[in-house]
Structure formats: C-alpha cells, structure tokens
Design goal:
- This protein has a seven-stranded parallel β-sheet with strand order 8-7-6-9-10-11-12. The chain has a five-stranded parallel β-sheet with strand order 2-1-3-4-5, covered by helices on one side.
- The chain is of the alpha/beta class.
- The protein has nine helices and twelve strands.
Length: 333
C-alpha cells in the first residue's frame, strides 16, 4: 500500500503513522522539521505522481486532480468541513471519505467563549481606547449566566460550546437536524424546522454548521431580523451560513449588539469589505481551529491513524462522511 501524506506531520506524528502501517510505502510531502503550524502550499509538481499512484491520501489534495487519482481508496481529510470533497461528482463513490470531526471541539468552543465574553463585557472597546490613552467608562455589561444561548448545530463543536455555556450558568437550547436526544448540558433540543420559533428567545446564537446547500444563506436578512434585539451572533462553521451584508446592516442599525465571525463570506474577507468596519464585530481569519492548540493537531493525527487502521482491517471507519450531507455519518446536528 502507498500512502501520501500532504498534511504536515512532525516526527512524533510520523512515528504514529508508521506504527499503524509498518509495511506501507509512505511519502511525506513536508519536511518533518518544519513547524506543523506553518500552512505551506503543496509542491504539486513534485508530488503529483505520488498522489496519482497512492491508495491512501491524508490531507486535502487539489480537487482538480481527483479525476486522475484512479488508485485512491481512502481520503482522510485533516479538517471537519468536507466541502468540496463531499459534493456530488467530485470524488468517486469507490473512495472512502473521512474527516477529522471530533478534533476541534475544545479549541473552537473556547474561542467562541472568549469571543462572547469579550463582547458582552465590552473588552474590545477598552482595547480600542488604549492607543489614544482614553480613560473612559463604557457603561453597563451583561452576564452570560443570565442569557439564553441557542446552539445551531450540536456536533462536536456545538456540544463543546453548549457545555461551556451551561457551566457558566446560561440556559442552552440546541438545534439539530434529526432526533431530540438531549445531553445533560442542554436544556432543550428542537429540530431545525423549529429554528424560527426559538430564534427570538436567544440572547446568543452560535452557528457551528458545515457548508452545504442546507446551510448556505441560513441566516439571511430576514432571519437576522427575527433575532432578539440586542442579541449576539457567533459563527465558526462556514461563512456562507450568514449573509455578510445583512450582518453588517443588522450591526450598524443597532438591532444586533455584536457578532464574532471566525469565518466569513467571501474568505479571505477583502480588505475593503464593509464588515471590517462594523460596530461591535470581531473578525478572526479562520484561526479558531487549525492546529493552534497542539491537542487539536494530535487528535487529527490520531483520527487519521485510526481510520487507516480500520481501513486496512476492513472495519467500519471512525469518521466516514455522508456524501449527501457532508456530515460524519453518525453525526447529526
């Protein structure tokens, strides 16, 4: 078996993979001495032949190359989001597609908690006052313990954030596609067709949904208008879930008290986009996840190794992706 790894595996991670598949031919596309935090572009001319002759690829190969990768049997993505690989016709049905769901909950949920605490305590305003040496009282603040948090998406990330909010004393409502099984740290669970009914109840709306046809434009101008006045919205899934211009207008009009976008549409957000100038808006450049927390990186490596082990032993994969939804087969938000 030939495996090409186009995710930056350091020495420890390479040892894990070699131990998993000791007899495989493994091609490493990145120098093990380079930092796993560096987002290096793949040297495609150098590794194209390896990709074309590999049964297993770990990482995200160029989509344009997939039709030529005739030997591919397992593609293990180093991310939770699966588009465009899960879109119809992109990847042969003969190829097992896996993602890294389960790796990002801790890091991204903490980023979300930090973001909402910054906004409701007005810390961003005080930080902005520092360059001018302005000593000013920015007025009243709010407590998360007095708020209702609506988690749209109850996967790994949504559940991790819900748990943190519950520990802070908030009331938590979850929205998922199927089933109403309620974790202990969620007060109420509703199906996605009831979103508009519970939306006006929420002081904080947290989106952690992937990008697909169901979630594109999920929060339109009309849906943002249904949110409670002076509420907050957080988005860590895909930028396409929120209409960027409508979000800007909702913030500028004062209807929304604040927003935190770890993802944007378009992405990267152009320097001249008006959303950069929106009041009470925190924009971070898709960094809430990635490998900034070492534990996230280690989990991604472990998931890839376990999927490979199961694949070689013809066992059910750990994180198989449903091509119709883009979600892990057993994950239902």
């Amino acid at each position: 078996m030939k495996i090409t790894v186009i995710t930056n595996f350091d020495e420890i991670s390479r040892e894990k993979l070699v131990k998993t598949a000791p007899d495989a031919e493994i091609v490493w596309a990145f120098d093990q001495n380079s930092s796993y935090l560096v987002r290096e572009p793949l040297d495609l001319p150098k590794y194209k032949d390896d990709l074309l002759t590999s049964e297993v690829v770990i990482g995200a190969p160029p989509v344009s190359l997939l039709p030529e990768m005739k030997k591919l049997k397992l593609l293990s993505l180093s991310m939770a989001g699966t588009e465009p690989y899960s879109l119809p016709g992109v990847l042969s049905e003969d190829v097992a597609l896996c993602n890294s769901t389960g790796a990002f909950g801790k890091a991204i949920s903490e980023h979300m908690l930090a973001s909402i605490m910054m906004l409701i305590k007005k810390l961003h305003l005080y930080r902005d006052d520092m360059p001018s040496g302005l000593w000013a009282d920015r007025g009243s603040v709010r407590s998360l313990s007095d708020m209702t948090v609506l988690c749209v998406g109850l996967g790994d990330i949504g559940c991790a954030f819900a748990k943190l909010c519950k520990l802070m004393g908030a009331k938590v409502i979850g929205v998922r596609r199927h089933g109403t099984t309620k974790p202990d740290y969620v007060d109420e669970v509703v199906l996605s067709d009831k979103l508009d009914e519970v939306l006006p109840l929420a002081d904080v709306v947290a989106l952690s949904v992937p990008g697909n046809k169901e979630t594109a434009g999920l929060f339109s101008k009309e849906r943002l208008a249904r949110m409670k006045k002076d509420s907050y919205i957080l988005n860590v899934g895909r930028g396409s879930a929120i209409d960027s211009m409508a979000l800007f207008e909702a913030l500028e009009s004062g209807h929304l008290a604040g927003a935190a976008s770890a993802v944007t549409d378009p992405e990267p957000l152009p320097a001249d986009h008006v959303l950069w100038q929106a009041k009470n808006c925190l924009i971070t450049p898709h960094v809430s996840g990635f490998y900034h927390l070492r534990e996230t990186y280690d989990r991604i490596v472990d998931i890839a190794c376990e999927n490979l082990r199961r694949f070689m032993n013809d066992e059910p994969l750990l994180t198989p992706v449903d091509r119709n939804t883009g979600y892990r087969v057993t994950q239902k938000y």
